[in-house]
Specification:
The N terminus is likely disordered. By secondary structure, the protein is of the alpha+beta class. It is built from eleven helices and six strands. It folds into two domains: 122 residues, no CATH class; 195 residues, no CATH class. The strands form two sheets. It has a four-stranded antiparallel beta sheet with strand order 1-4-3-2. A two-stranded antiparallel ribbon has the order 5-6.
Length: 332
Amino acid sequence: MPNETPRPRSSFLYKMVWNPRRAAIFTPRMLDILARTRASVQTATFERLSEIDFMMEANIQNAEVHAGYKSDHAFLLELGQTYREKQFGVVRLPKWLFDAVLFERYEVVFPVWKKIQPHCMVEIAFDKTTTDVYLPEASLYEDMCFAYNQALALLGGKTKPELKAHTFYVRTSIISAYNFVESFLNGLAFDLLATCRRTLSQKERDLLSEWDSKNTRQRYVNFREKAIQYPKILLNQKTPPFTESDCPALQSLMQKVRLRDAVVHSSPKIIDGEPIKIRELVETEFSDSTTVVDAAVEFVKTVDDRVHRGRYDNAWLLPRSADGRFPPESFE
């Protein structure tokens, strides 16, 4: 049910916010032992399997003591069986699941753990024994940055293909900007539902989960309501911490959201005597894209600073450089 703790979904695209090459989690000796143990399982004698079972039990006990492992052995056995059957290279689990079900203090083995949002997906590569962390809004931020940089590079093009490509990237950067901001807001809602220790009203739960509990059906929340109401609920305030009147970035996003709608929901429908969406689609300019991407970065930073107060890593969130482009660090 939408009002329950959210369940993990592994079909998102994520941005890596922690590089496993920076920390030596596994030594060469440990990797060698692991590889030899895996290879011997298929043909091992009963005595050898008993030894492996003993080692696994000892490792589990060590994990329980070292990182506070709190799940049962059945979880690991099921994971191992699934791996043998499907031979997948990667398993993805949400960070909140690690905290809620698997480990009490995973930061002991993963130092940046507490700087990672609960909705991040933790990707464990079985073949390489490495760990990556992916953040959906950061991936969409990258889409926005790439599209904008391409639009800027093609500005002033003369040939028809260049002009068409420029228009494509202008539209794409605008769509990606709103996707990025909405993904960030959805992440805020998800994290609160997954980890909240205070009592939320049914109205708040419905709003955060985009659900109509009275009629048991989906109820989609528009962009403005998310931008204003989600931070208010997270901060447990009676009034929104900001609206268009005191947040220029939000004001810009709301003024330009019609451009996104004109592309995503293009329609020749006549409103007040003219096909407004077609006009917006045709007349959208590069300057509109600049306004939107700058407002998107500023708004997300504003909300993150107010809600999280530095609790989570947002080093990936960079504005445009002096040359007008998003810097190479935006894609690292």
